[in-house]
């Protein structure tokens, strides 16, 4: 995965430079592009962090770029920089899934704080997805019988009841249960239920 950073897309060089300096002064890694088209040419699905888009640009607008990225499955949080007259457009972008919009002229500290929140949100989402992928990978190692036993364990059933329901010995249930706990990396049925809840 790429280093998480703020990706600034703005066709005004002075604003790009000012924003770059502002964020670097608060130790936020930054990359910037002079147009939506330039960003799309460099876009990589492994990019992490968040996007700060000017809503109005020459060529493709920030809103069009947002729509294109959404269609491509980009999950990075998007914040829009807007002029006063663009607030209704920005609100409609929020309804489509943008994270936030900031009106120009903006308060420097407020803008940086919002971006840092968006970066933290993106990091949290990526960690959650990685955790889900890890649980799914462990589930894939279970045999069909181990899955059956796991389902009954999570339902709170005792080994004796599980043995009766599946028509196997209690010793066999104990062996399967031990394998499930080992493969899933848990020590108790409660822990098992908790990690299964993360993958629905």
From TrEMBL:
Annotated ranges, domain Response regulatory: 5-119
GO terms, molecular function: DNA binding
GO biological process: phosphorelay signal transduction system; regulation of DNA-templated transcription
Superkingdom of origin organism: Bacteria
Record keywords, A-Z: DNA-binding, Phosphoprotein, Transcription, Transcription regulation
Gene: dctR
Residue list for modification 4-aspartylphosphate: 54
PANTHER family per UniProt: DNA-BINDING TRANSCRIPTIONAL ACTIVATOR DEVR_DOSR (PTHR44688)
SUPFAM superfamilies: C-terminal effector domain of the bipartite response regulators, CheY-like
Name under which the protein is recorded: C4-dicarboxylate transport transcriptional regulator, LuxR/FixJ family
InterPro entries for this protein: CheY-like_superfamily, Sig_transdc_resp-reg_C-effctor, Sig_transdc_resp-reg_receiver, Tscrpt_reg_LuxR_C, WH-like_DNA-bd_sf
Highest classification ranks of the organism: Bacteria, Pseudomonadati, Pseudomonadota, Alphaproteobacteria, Rhodospirillales
Domain HTH luxR-type residue range list: 135-200
């Amino acid at each position: 995965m790429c280093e998480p950073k703020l990706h600034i897309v703005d066709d005004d060089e002075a604003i790009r430079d000012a924003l770059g300096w502002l964020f670097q002064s608060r130790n936020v890694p930054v990359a910037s592009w002079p147009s939506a088209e330039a960003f799309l040419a460099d876009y990589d699905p492994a990019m992490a962090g968040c996007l700060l888009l000017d809503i109005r640009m020459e060529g493709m607008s920030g809103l069009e770029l947002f729509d294109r990225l959404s269609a491509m499955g980009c999950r990075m949080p998007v914040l829009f920089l807007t002029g006063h007259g663009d607030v209704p457009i920005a609100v409609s972008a929020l309804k489509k899934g943008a994270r936030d919009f900031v009106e120009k002229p903006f308060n420097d500290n407020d803008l940086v704080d919002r971006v840092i929140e968006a970066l933290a949100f993106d990091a949290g989402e990526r960690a959650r997805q990685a955790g889900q992928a890890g649980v799914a990978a462990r589930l894939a190692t279970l045999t069909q019988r181990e899955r059956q036993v796991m389902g009954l364990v999570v339902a709170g059933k005792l080994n004796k009841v599980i043995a009766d329901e599946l028509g196997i010995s209690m010793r066999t249930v104990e062996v399967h249960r031990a394998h499930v706990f080992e493969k899933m990396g848990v020590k108790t049925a409660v822990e098992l239920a908790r990690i299964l809840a993360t993958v629905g």
